[in-house]
Amino acid sequence: MRKVSVAIADDHKIFAEGIQSVTKEIDWITWSGAAHSAAETIALFKAKQPEVLLLDYHLPDGKGSEVAATILQEFPKAIILILSMEHDNDIIYQCKTAGVKGYLIKNLSSDELLEAIQESVAGQEIFMWAPEKPTTAKHEDVLSKREKEIIHLITQGLTSHEIAEKLFLSTYTVDTHRRNILRKLDLKNTAMMVLYAQQHQL
pTM higher than 0.70 for the full model? Predict the structure, then answer.
């Protein structure tokens, strides 16, 4: 893995420091700094231009979506991942429209965060909650690699807890993926998901 420069913006300094601390041994991450307000974030990005910005949605002087839009206007190739505890479709869609590459729940594990950074650098979008209604696109276009993996394990009869242990994820994250899969495929329940997987050989 090539080195990736990362910056974090969060008004809770202890949270930002915690993220930096748990990833300090990761040799492919280089930290460009931390900011704790919208103004600081924009200034930091302009000065350091990190490849990935982890951006809190709630900052004391502005919303993450507004900060993202400002940065992306000048740096359209910036990879911005929103960190939030808000499960609000309007907010998620707002962030998506602003051009961010992902919307992550704040209680994700360090491994999940690293995976999200890697996937975003590889060109993928990572929305742990779906930002919009299901599309008519084919499932292979709609579902992420992780979602397909989870569907496969569900068809084998594994519970969310068992899947979480197998994939080294939290049960909460697996359940979030399950909800997103149902939403993306416009299915009502797990039984319909299993039938869909069998029909499409997932």
Answer: no
